[in-house]
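User: structure tokens for this one?
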Amino acid sequence: MADKQTQNTGEKTSLHPRNPHRERYDFAQLTKALPKLSAFMFTNEHGIKTIDFTDAEAVKMLNKAILKQQYGIASWDIPQGFLCPPIPGRADYIHYIADILAEGNGGEVPTGNQVKVLDIGVGANCIYPLVGHKTYGWQFVGSEVDYIAAGSAKKIVEDNKLTDAIEIRTQSSYAHIFQGIIKPGEKFDITMCNPPFHASAKEVNANSQRKWQNLKQDKGTDLNFGGRNTELWCEGGEPRFLNKMMSESKQFAHASKWFSSLISKKTTLPGCFNSLDYLGARDVKTIDMAQGQKSSRILVWRF
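Assistant:
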């Protein structure tokens, strides 16, 4: 039985206290940083300047502006069809794992390049390493099984002269997560992952259709944030992917102080708790996250 198993049950409706994206988007500052964003802006019925969040190009331009204005990332782009994530929610994951690392550092968030983080499935967008390094100075390794996504992430790193801080590694096997990525003798402070949580392309399309119906938009099954198969679904969905990750984490218990993953579906948690108990995890935590109507959680464990 794990020594400690904590699940935060209080519902959150806002972002982490250190998250700089807690307030409304400051479009004046964002367009100052990236003037091209202004072409996608309009004033809504409430007299507020905004963009069309169902427009993929508008969302991508907003991300470019946020990364430039808030994080000093001058060059960022992703190939057509790849996931274009909302940065505020991604930043939240970084700030919450910083709190986990602070627990072993006298309550202070450790900063600088002595902290090493492994991002499983870094994606073409490379968001977590960019935000984590620019916010806390951490070193990152990002793994990616899709060679096009890996190439995109590498280009972002190289274009922004961050090769000393962020390394992208290609996972050659769909059957493994940590194996083939973590090198012999290598040590990480924590691993992180935003796993594909759908079980099939059909499930992705059904979920997308519901989304557009909720928005009262007739745009078929195209997602405004995009996403390739490896980003959105895998056989067995979130539970199977996480079970594989947890099993491999036991094999690499010596290589990381903590392991973590986003959990999209609350119903996935009980199975994860059972698996980690079986594997002998000594410390298991969940952290609730929310941004407006959307809620998720982070599962964190160590051996």
